[in-house]
Amino acid sequence: MEATGGDDEVVSGELTSLAHAVSLPAECYGNDPDIEMAWAMRAMQHAEVYYKLISSVDPQFLKLTKVDDQIYSEFRENFKKLRIDVLDPEELKSEAAKEKWRPFCLKFDGIVEDFNYGTLLRLNCSQGYTEENTIFAPRIQFFAIEIARNREGYNKAVYTSVQDKEEEKGATNGGDKGANSGGEEEKGANREGEKEKTNKGGEKEKEAYKEINKSGETAM
């Protein structure tokens, strides 16, 4: 999937810092270091794909699963007052929270593939996947919160930030072209650039949708 070099470096750097975060006790993986490593790599890959997706496409128009409507409806019916822009880990990880989340998650057993597969979830949706901003969550919990963030407009902060940077780069490059090639050539280049950007955006969404819905190699 195509992405800007600068953003790729930021995402890769943040994901590298998660190496410690994904080092859960070995007993969680049956004392098999190969399984632990495979799980960690898969979780980080999923996080990277998803972050690129919401950076490239307006999140309000994204569809993460075939049952987004059902997930969102059930989620907001059961968690009406849950704040999702900045998550409180206690609302997800405390014993009381686990008791409330468990019936919700189990409803999607057999509906969402690998519904309980371990996934990385951002606490503050305006920020990336850093160690401090990341917790572990079952896949269905990730989908519920991220679908809600997309539909309720919270994830647009990431998309807007990345697009603003792209426009700034485009304006700078456009100015250089204008000085060298003339106004008309600049307009033509900008029109072609917008067309190419639109096409690439559609390709990114399709590719990322396939990647984010791939089955996990290891179930939690």
> How big is the Rg?
20 Å
Provide the structure class.
mainly alpha
What letter string, H or E per element, gives the SSE order?
HHHHHEEHHH
Helix count, per DSSP? 8
| β-strand number | 2
Mean pLDDT across every amino acid position: 77
- The name of the CATH architecture of the domain at 32-165 is Orthogonal Bundle
CATH topology name of the domain at 32-165, in short, is: yst0336 like fold
Task: Sum this structure up briefly.
The chain has 8 helices and 2 strands.
Question: Could you characterize the architecture of this molecule?
Answer:
By secondary structure, the chain is mainly α. It has a domain at 32-165: Orthogonal Bundle (yst0336 like fold), CATH 1.10.3560.10. The chain contains 8 helices and 2 strands, in the order αααααββααα. It has helices spanning 5-16, 33-56, 68-78, 90-93, 95-106, 139-151, 156-181, 183-212; strands spanning 118-122, 134-138. The longest helix has 30 residues, at 183-212. The two termini are 27 Å apart.
